[in-house]
Amino acid sequence: MTTTVPGPLYQPAGTAAGLESVRGLVNTALDILQEVSAARLGPVAPGGPEGARSAAAKALAGPLLPEQGGDATEVLGDLVRSYAEWSVDITHPAALARMQPPPTDVAAAAELVGAVLNQSLHAWESGPFALELDRWVIAQLAELVGYDSTEAGGTLTSGGSVSNLMAMTMARDTTIADKLGRHAFQEGLLRLGVQPVVLCPQGVHFSIERAVRLLGIGEDNIRTVPIDRDGRMIPAEADRILTELPEGELAVAIVAVAGSTDLGIVDPLPELAVIARKHGVWLHADAAYGAGALFSPRLRGMLDGIAEADSVTMDLHKFGWTPASSAALLVRRAETMLSFGLQPTTCLSADDDTCAGYIGSQNTSLQTTRRVDALKIAVSMRTLGREAVGAMVDTCHDLARHAAARIQAEPKLELGTEPPLTAVLFRYLPGHGLDADAFNGALRRRVMEDGRALLARTHIAEEDGTSRVFLKLMLLNPETTTGQLDRIIDELLATAAEQEAAAAGA
Fold first, then answer.
1. Residue 4 forms part of a structural domain
2. What does DSSP assign to residue 302?
3. pLDDT tens across 201-250, in order?
């Protein structure tokens, strides 16, 4: 009887033969990306949502798991081409909608290495060097914020929303433990006999509301702190709310905005830190976007006092020019991350492996298996250097100020406010009795469907409680020129005038 030895079912990427295969496949993909890039006419293909759905239906015909597999080069080529053709070209100067900066080349290369080696951070035996690299990056980022790196801690996360959820978890658990000597993560909130509350300013990121919902605190237990005319939280009002809390309510956190995504608002961090310490409340600074100011000698002063916060959210896939996800949650005291530990992590009560240094990150993260984002951050930052990163931030800020000045000079455009960072809010002012909110919403959709520009939209609240629709330019590409910005605004004005004429004549 003859036994047939089956061939390999697939080519593991990390073997010698697999690496050669990866080289060929990557070259195929890069050739396609260059072809698609050369054929582009705008930041996205024209056609809007219907065009994207139609392209996807054609490219994805057939099952995800066919009975018989196909040739890797052909399968990759087919999907990569469609994916690229309908991807947003974030290097295009008119890609101004979202916080997606074009990543550095070296960071993109590091992503490939991370995928091939497929390390994980949950256990020492899943990524020994990766764990050391991860801890080093966290320590370096803690120093950037101003923390004492010997006491600070943190973790890389998938984004600001997860960072904020983790921060609210630590705030709840640490404050309750300090004030009541009990652990919410063990007993649950109901048995504690108190209602945790969180203080936030108006306009705080929606992820904070979602976090308190998930943590069982409840959105009804957010206490909104009044803001001043500049949109900043009023410290005296926060102090008043904390002082006047009724019996049965326990404040666990003050959430400060440290660079809002629309107006660039930074709450008064030094004053809020004093109030938080006075009342024994956790202070969290959401600097997911605003942390970019830390790289700039010109703008760093905006975040004075951030080192007094108990935790800080920052996203390097915004101002760090690294691919998503590259986010971090940093904490002033590493021991506050106990909320995520399922077992002791000190040699006093841990097993012999832990005492010998075989420690993973499972006790400092929401995730168990976790990808290694630290590699792309480290190679990108080391390649650029502090001076270059600071210059890139300043260039984006200069572009925002140029756009704001140009908008102010146009009679048909209204500027929302001077941009403290890189977001520029504005809107077109139609005549003929046309509703400006509806007009600007339609204008945004029109230029996106044509594939000529990608813009965001937001609302600016008025003192009477109403709000107005504004369009937003998010400038995170330091390669954009002022001339390109001027042409984008010129084209937008021409399209708006055409839309206004058509609406007036209808």
1. no
2. G
3. 988 899 999 999 999 999 999 999 999 999 999 999 999 999 999 999 99
CA distance 169 to 167: 5
* CA nearest to 389, candidates 316, 473, 313: 316
d(CA 130, CA 133): 5
Bridge partners, residue 410, by sequence: none
Q: Are residues 305 and 406 in the same domain?
A: no
Tell me, what's the pLDDT at 172? 96
In a domain, 498, yes or no: yes
CA–CA gap between residue 147 and residue 311 (Å, rounded): 10
Residue written as tokens 């931030």?
A: 393
What's the rounded Cα separation, in Å, for the pair 143 and 308? 13
Residues constituting the chain: 506
Q: Does residue 158 belong to any structural domain of this protein? A: yes
Q: How far apart are CA 86 and CA 65, in angstroms?
A: 23
Check residue 44 and report its DSSP letter: S
pTM greater than 0.90? yes
Residue ending a domain, among 326, 341, 371, is 371
Task: Tell me if 317 sits within 8 A of 326, measured CB to CB.
Answer: yes
Domain boundaries, position 128: 120-371
Count: domains in the chain? 3
Do 288 and 343 belong to one domain?
Answer: yes
Residue holding tokens 């800080």?
312
Q: Are both 364 and 393 inside the same structural domain? A: no
The CATH number covering residue 391 comes to 3.90.1150.10
What burial class does residue 153 get, using C-beta atoms within 10 Å of its C-beta: 0-12 exposed, 13-18 middle, 19+ buried?
buried
